[in-house]
Amino acid sequence: MNSASITPAGVILAAGASSRMGRVKALLEIDGETFIDRVARVLGTKCNPVIAVLGHHAEAIRAGLRNPGAIQFAENPEPDCGMLTSLQIGLCSAPDLSAGVLFTPVDVPLVSLSTVSLLAAALSKGASVAVPVYKGKRGHPVAISGGVAERLMGLPESGRANDMIRAEVAVEITVADAGVILEVDTPQDYEALLCHVG
């Protein structure tokens, strides 16, 4: 494989219990797509493969996918151990980390194609970390180089991915994309998201 054909991997973190929502967040719908299908489609414009890390509700999520061929799956057997373990499983499942990784929780579903393109471009230009920023707030996806991904995989369970990522010199990409910070945790968040789209 030549370097021009290498693309970053995409990792969707979808192992949570969705306890505050009361429904499986990955299968909530917006504009006729489930959250997980939409995030996979958008990441898939610049990432290959796109890996979804499942845990709670894994069977329901697999059954509810509209486009299962767009996603590879990994499973976190202990999803309550925290998001770091899911991220590490996703990173370990990527066949090639040399072009870096874009990762995002499944409950940030409105990220635009242009934002993903900007993040992938930052990695290709040598960024260790690139994050989208909307009105002064950092959001998702987060783009990390292969080197950062390797270090994240080595963190102990008690480690914090955010702390390690913040210690890196990050490229902050200002975007006009509110989707990078629109996270859905509760029914009220979901209603607000639908209003934002509508």
How would you describe what is shown here?
The protein has 198 residues and is of the alpha/beta class. It contains seven helices and ten strands. Strand 7 (129-134) and strand 8 (137-138) form a beta hairpin. Helix 3 packs across helix 5. The model has no long low-confidence stretch (mean pLDDT 94).
Helix/strand order, N-terminal first: EEEHEHEHEHEEEHHEH
Gyration radius, to the nearest Å? 16 Å
The proportion of strand residues reads 15-25%
Give the termini distance in whole angstroms: 43 Å
Helix content: 25-40%
Structural class: alpha/beta
Number of helices: 7
Number of strands: 10
Report the biggest beta sheet as strand number plus sense, adding barrel if it closes: 8 strands, mixed
Low-pLDDT residue intervals, each spanning 5 or more residues = none
User: What is the molecular shape?
Assistant: globular
The averaged pLDDT comes out at 94
